[in-house]
Amino acid sequence: MKLKQADIGKIRKAMEKALDTKRYEHTLGVAYTASCLAMCYDENVRNAELAGLLHDCAKCIPNEKKIKICEKHNILINEIEYKNPFLLHAKVGSFLAMEMYGVRDKDVINAILNHTTGRPGMTTLEKIIYIADYIEPNRKQAPNLAEIRKLAFQDLDKALLRILEDTLCYLGSLNNDIDPMTKKTYEYYKENSKGKI
Ligand code: DGI
Ligand code: FE
Ligand code: FE
Fold first, then answer.
1. From the CB of 117, is ligand 1 less than 6 Å away?
2. SS in 3 state form for the chain?
3. Claim: this prediction has a pTM higher than 0.90
4. How does pLDDT run across 121-152, given as a tens digit for each residue?
5. Which of 32, 85, 160, 176 is least surrounded by Cβ atoms within 10 Å, i.e. has the fewest?
């Protein structure tokens, strides 16, 4: 299926097909949570829903195929991504959002592109998708979840920093490879929080 224009209803149906049941439920959770955060922070609600629906659109593509798509379309793969190809679902997802699902809005594309590692200087929509991915109702295992869920509707940057801290701590405890961007994002928002109460 190739859409000329990003149609929310058609994209929802396409996600139901492209994803397994759990990932589809998670996707709907992210779309609804992102919409609520957009209402809270005066962001475009439709863009939040669209980015939420599409953020994991490449999640169920097998790793070898994700690598092939990147190689075919000149999408750079770093060393950490070669070793941990699941990370590529963000890059491949943003590519598919443009090529298959008719998304043209740059902010929506970037919110999908940066939803796993974040990046320094994220836009409000990028932060909303990053945070909604972590707090949506179907996520149950993360530590401090109740607190972070509340914080998300009070202070977006504080919630972002808490999630980055907890994610780095979790990845460190498992001895997982850290993508340079995940670390850069954390350092940027740590520095950014200084001087703010
Ligand atoms: O696709 P989702 O599971 O909904 O969420 P996601 O795209 O944010 O991916 C979440 C996982 O990615 C989570 O277990 C933390 C992990 N992650 C984030 N940054 C890095 C990372 N994993 C590794 N190995 N390195 C990273 O830098
Ligand atoms: Fe993801
Ligand atoms: Fe997700």
1. yes
2. CCCCCCCHHHHHHHHHHHCCHHHHHHHHHHHHHHHHHHHHCCCCHHHHHHHHHHCCCCCCCCHHHHHHHHHHCCCCCCHHHHHCHHHHHHHHHHHHHHHCCCCCCHHHHHHHHCCCCCCCCCCHHHHHHHHHHHHCCCCCCCCCHHHHHHHHCCCHHHHHHHHHHHHHHHHHHCCCCCCHHHHHHHHHHHHHHCCCC
3. yes
4. 999 999 999 999 999 999 988 889 999 999 99
5. 176
- The whole-angstrom distance between residue 27's C-alpha and the CA centroid of its chain comes to 10
Place of tokens 């957009």: 38
Tokens of residue 98, six digits: 């443009």
56 CA closest ligand 1 atom index: 1
